[in-house]
Automatic annotation (TrEMBL):
SUPFAM superfamilies: Phosphoglucomutase, C-terminal domain, Phosphoglucomutase, first 3 domains. It comes from the Eukaryota. It comes from Aspergillus nanangensis. This is Phosphoglucomutase-3. PROSITE patterns: PGM_PMM. The gene is PGM3. Gene3D superfamilies: Alpha-D-Glucose-1,6-Bisphosphate, subunit A, domain 3 (3.40.120.10).
Length: 600
């Protein structure tokens, strides 16, 4: 009996290895990166069937966020080969479907993460192979300069190699269309199909980037000054007389913002600020933070220590690619970290005051996402400004802003609760650099009125009502587990349930399935998005709760708008724990009042 067991194990491994052998062969035929070739070879030699299956028999999904994932060998990961394949598919798609605009070229930028520069160069090869010009950012760049570059250079598309605020082992491939906004459905599906049709590397795909008349390697040196001018022009347009802001501490969290923002500040006379020395230069290891996202508890600890030492009471922060913006203020001896919704309504109030002075002739519209605060809508209504709700993600808000402009509206601003702020006068994606400059301009104005950002926020709460938000997330072990969770919720008594914990359910909406119990035809007013998962409940006691899958990270996020901790606990007990016990979540989360809420 014991002697036969090894024999059966060997037969089993041989059969399962046979099932992945063709994928191994295909990978080794196409991949010319010695590091990732060696990874697959070692897994093959170790007969690591499960790992090989996971790496090779699923493809990394191309969606409206482009690509994002762990850097490793295999078709399911971010690596040189999958970047080449995505670029070939995108190049072929543009040449075939948008031939009239392809001559405008493609803008390609990259951040300072591991492999970002290499991925950008390999991506450029695909477009050059089809005689599509490439506006190449040879230096590490901030993400907003790519959508800005697309519209400034009249390019057909843009690519940014970044994983934004993801962990160090991740990277990504973000795609913009000629309108400067992120691609949206159905374009993502069409590009994904083109990628599947162009998987084999083309001749020259693996070569080092070669000079040619179609390759503009000095593009960043030309675009960055124009972007900075646009940021400053917009900032100046929002104020009557520019005043220097209160002294502050700045951190880019080891990202590329430190290559741009301090220089921009100095160039416009903002000199009294202190960069966090340990974090101001790009470092792809992100050594001083456990997670390089300013939303995370503890991410700003070093900035707070620096501010305490320097005697400064304001902190300005960017995430590693500088498309998100965060701020904190010392209030009565303790640090108050503003939520994305807090900053959103603060910026909106400042811009509304500015608009009232300029007397725009065009009607004005602003946007935020379905999981962001309802306070913006109330503020917009009070100022005779159109409010537009959007699905989550700037792929929606950027394109909706373009549509509103086509209708004759002026769109100064849009935001999402995850620290994302868009100013279409500069670019049609979230832009942490512009957000920081407008925030500093607003702070200087409030200071002249005897206010700080915190006391201005309290003033707004008194005027429009106190809106609060609690945000947190579960880390999911895989997209399949996340999908199982949402399927289980839908498969239960979700549609017929009258209560959730101690709360009465007044209305619920499923943006994936396109159902809304609160409309006459039971169809959402927002477009359904089958590529994402998002469920929203309206509860009594003025609570709105949303649970959704993150489009860029292995997370399931939940947001309770106008706050109630009990709603979070009810969802944990009734929805998540019965169906997805393997998910992990932070038991500490910051509330919008600056305190830490502990989950049991």
């Amino acid at each position: 009996m014991d002697e036969r067991r090894p024999h059966h194990t060997i037969l089993f491994n041989k059969r399962t290895m046979d099932s992945v052998s063709s994928s191994i062969h295909q990978w080794l035929e196409w991949d010319q990166d010695p590091i990732t070739r060696d990874e697959i070879s070692q897994l093959r030699d170790a007969a690591a069937v499960d790992e090989l299956t996971q790496r090779l028999q699923k493809r990394i999904q191309f969606g409206t966020a482009g690509l994002r994932g762990r850097m490793a060998a295999g078709f399911s990961c971010m690596n040189c080969l999958t970047v080449i394949q995505a670029s070939q598919g995108l190049a072929k798609y543009l040449k075939t479907k948008h031939a009239n605009y392809a001559s405008g070229g493609v803008v390609i930028g990259h951040d300072a993460r591991y492999n970002s520069a290499k991925f950008a160069a390999l991506a450029a090869n695909a477009f050059l192979a089809l005689d599509i010009p490439v506006w190449f950012y040879s230096s590490s760049s901030i993400t907003p300069t790519v959508p800005f570059g697309v519209t400034h250079l009249h390019a057909v598309a843009g690519i940014m190699i970044t994983a934004s605020h993801n962990p160090a082992q991740d990277n990504g491939y973000k795609v913009y269309f000629k309108n400067g906004a992120q691609i949206n459905t159905p374009m993502d599906v069409e590009i994904a199909q083109s990628i599947e049709e162009n998987l084999a590397p083309w001749p020259g795909a693996w070569k080092d980037l070669q000079p040619s008349k179609s390759l503009h390697e000095d593009a960043y040196q030309k675009v960055l000054p124009q972007y900075i001018k646009a940021v400053w022009d917009y900032t100046e347009s929002t104020t009557i007389a520019w005043k220097p802001p209160k002294p502050f501490v700045y951190t880019p969290l080891h990202g590329v913002g430190g290559l741009v923002f301090p220089t921009l500040c100095s160039s416009v006379g903002i000199s009294d600020f202190t960069p966090v020395a340990e974090q101001v230069k790009p470092n792809p290891d992100f050594p001083t933070v456990s997670f390089p996202n300013p939303e995370e508890v503890g991410a700003l600890d070093l900035a707070m220590q620096t501010a305490d030492r320097e005697g400064k009471s304001i902190i300005i922060a960017h995430d590693p690619d500088a498309d998100r913006f965060a701020a904190a203020e010392k209030v009565t001896g303790s640090w108050f970290t503003f939520t994305g919704n807090h900053i959103g309504v603060l910026l909106a109030s400042y811009l509304f005051e500015s608009l009232s002075r300029t007397k725009k002739t065009s009607p004005v519209a602003v946007l935020n996402s379905a999981v962001s605060t309802g306070m913006l809508e109330k503020m917009a209504d009070a100022n005779d400004i159109r409010f537009q709700e959007a699905l989550t993600g700037f792929k929606w808000m950027g394109n909706i802003a373009r549509n509103l402009e086509a209708e004759g509206y002026y769109v100064p601003f849009a935001f999402e609760e995850a620290l994302g702020y868009m100013f279409p006068d500069v670019c049609y994606d979230k832009d942490g650099i512009t957000a920081a400059m407008v925030f500093l301009s607003a702070q200087a104005t409030w200071q002249s009125q005897g206010l700080t950002p915190y006391t201005k926020l309290q003033q707004l709460f008194k005027e429009y009502g106190h809106f609060e938000t609690l945000n947190n997330y579960f880390r999911s072990p895989s997209p399949d587990v996340s999908m199982h969770l949402f399927q289980a919720i839908r498969g239960g008594s979700f549609r017929t349930a009258k209560s959730l914990g101690s709360f009465k359910i007044l209305r619920w909406r499923d943006m994936t399935e396109g159902y809304d119990s609160g409309t006459e035809d039971q169809k959402p007013t927002l477009p359904e998005d089958k590529s994402s998962q998002m469920l929203t409940l309206w509860l009594d006691r003025d609570v709105r709760f949303t649970i959704r899958a993150s489009g860029t990270e292995p997370k399931v996020k939940y947001e309770a708008v106008e706050a109630v901790c009990d709603a979070l606990l009810a969802v944990l007990t009734e929805w998540v724990q019965p169906f997805a016990p393997t998910m992990t979540y932070s038991k500490q989360m910051p509330t919008s009042s600056g305190h830490i809420f502990n989950l049991p």
